[in-house]
From TrEMBL:
<dbReference type="InterPro" id="IPR036291">
    <property type="entry name" value="NAD(P)-bd_dom_sf"/>
</dbReference>
<dbReference type="GO" id="GO:0004029">
    <property type="term" value="F:aldehyde dehydrogenase (NAD+) activity"/>
</dbReference>
<dbReference type="GO" id="GO:0005737">
    <property type="term" value="C:cytoplasm"/>
</dbReference>
<dbReference type="InterPro" id="IPR051783">
    <property type="entry name" value="NAD(P)-dependent_oxidoreduct"/>
</dbReference>
<feature type="domain" description="NAD-dependent epimerase/dehydratase">
    <location>
        <begin position="13"/>
        <end position="217"/>
    </location>
</feature>
<dbReference type="InterPro" id="IPR001509">
    <property type="entry name" value="Epimerase_deHydtase"/>
</dbReference>
<dbReference type="Pfam" id="PF01370">
    <property type="entry name" value="Epimerase"/>
</dbReference>
<protein>
    <recommendedName>
        <fullName>NAD-dependent epimerase/dehydratase domain-containing protein</fullName>
    </recommendedName>
</protein>
Length: 316
């Protein structure tokens, strides 16, 4: 099914990425259905809310009915990922195969595993040793195999750690900005002097929408537009300047509960903590060249995120 200006685009998952993507697709003129298990909550004009459990064959099939392009932005509780994400993949892949829709998958850097600080490109080897990294790599192999075998048209867009308005459950989110704005303790995970890539949630949305509109990108992994990596300390200094007060940065040298990250989450996150003890540098130049886009400058991202959190705190 060829996507036209009036073809239905279905976004699975209404977290920060899915919600930002729905807004971006509407801005680009597409009819949009936003799917989650409850089908409730505010939506941008032009977005249809839809309730379905896409971990089931019936739910996934109902969710994508009539779609030209489907975007898989579903995530689940960190402690459930290894068990549940493969079930969601199986249901979603079967559903898009049955309706003939293209599938755009939001992906992570987890399949690369520990890199020793090497810059990550789309050609980097997948050498994950963690449970969640291996799981993601296995899912990605299945997505690409489905494309190679002609069962579905699939493309993957990988992102670094999210940052931006609406992003709370991120290492540069709800543990950092509220504390920065109120004089609380800001966690410094691992070695904050190492370079670390952060992807603006609006770049995630724009990148996925571009992949949805540009089928010539199908059948491979792309790194979504991401500003050049700087050290986390530099990011915290940028925040400090914008909030007008020095930050109280508390070293967190290993995975332990802190702020919104509870014991259950950090116990699961421990195997991924290498991301804060070696450089995490993601190169998105292939996407930028191919699709003639540029990421939002980091300074603008921090401006928008500080402003959003100030409003958010005002409402809490």
């Amino acid at each position: 099914m060829a996507a036209t200006a009036h073809s239905l685009h279905v976004v699975l998952g209404s977290g920060p990425a899915g919600t930002a993507l729905a807004r971006e697709l509407v801005r680009r003129g597409h009819p949009v259905r936003l799917v989650d298990r409850k089908g409730e909550g505010p939506v941008p004009d032009g977005v249809e809310r839809f309730a379905a459990d896409v971990a089931t064959a019936e739910g996934a099939r109902a969710a994508v009915d009539g779609a030209a392009v489907v975007y898989h932005c579903v995530n689940v509780g960190y402690h459930l990922q290894v068990e549940v994400m493969p079930r969601i993949q199986a249901a979603v892949l079967a559903a898009v195969e049955s309706v003939g829709a293209r599938l755009v998958v939001l992906d992570t850097l987890y399949p690369y595993g520990e890199t020793g600080g090497a810059v990550m490109t789309e050609d980097s080897p997948w050498q994950a040793t963690t449970r969640k990294g291996r799981m993601r790599a296995e899912l990605d192999e299945k997505y690409l195999a489905a494309h190679r075998e002609g069962r579905a048209r699939v493309v993957l867009g990988r992102s670094a750690d999210f940052v931006g308005p609406g992003v709370v459950n991120s290492t540069l989110g709800g543990a950092v900005f509220p504390a920065a704005l109120t004089g609380g303790e800001v966690p410094g995970l691992g070695d904050i002097d190492l370079p670390h890539s952060y992807t603006n949630i609006e770049d995630v949305a724009a990148g996925l929408a571009t992949l949805g509109e540009r089928p010539e990108g199908d059948g491979r992994v792309w790194h979504l537009p991401t500003a050049a990596a700087v050290s986390t300390r530099e990011v915290l200094t940028m925040i400090e300047k914008r909030v007008g007060r020095p930050l109280t940065v508390v070293p967190v040298p290993e995975a332990r509960p802190f702020g919104p990250f509870d014991e259950q989450f950090m116990a699961e996150y421990a195997e991924m903590f290498y991301q804060h003890t070696e450089p995490q540098i993601m190169d998105s130049s292939a996407f930028e060249r191919t699709f003639a886009v540029a990421p939002v400058p980091l300074a603008e991202t921090i401006d928008a995120t500080v402003a959003w959190y100030a409003d958010w705190l005002g409402g809490h």
